[in-house]
Amino acid sequence: MAITLTKPAAERIAQQLDKNGAIALRFGAKESGCSGFSYVMDFAETIGESDVTFDNHDVQVVIDPKSLEILDGTQIDYVSEGLNQTFKFSNPMATDECGCGESFALQTPS
User: Fold this and answer.
1) pTM for the whole thing?
2) Phi-psi region of 41 (alpha: psi -120 to 50; beta: other; left: phi over 0)
């Protein structure tokens, strides 16, 4: 089980953590969006007892166990496309994504 960051993502997140005085990136998923689930990124100022943590390129990622079931194996990248800079998610659990890349669907058990 792991959440990984590419080096560009880790560098960008580290800058934002320093700027905001946070100790880690809180990563998760919530039900919403046009495909069923949306990615959630926030700053973590504390780490709960049930939180799972991962360290990548000297950046700590915190995730709750329920989100980890949906996001296990996800890689977070930070890319520049023309004038736009954004985080991209590569989630092996996702079966479909909306056109904007902000939400995703999971295969439902049959």
Assistant:
1) 0.86
2) beta
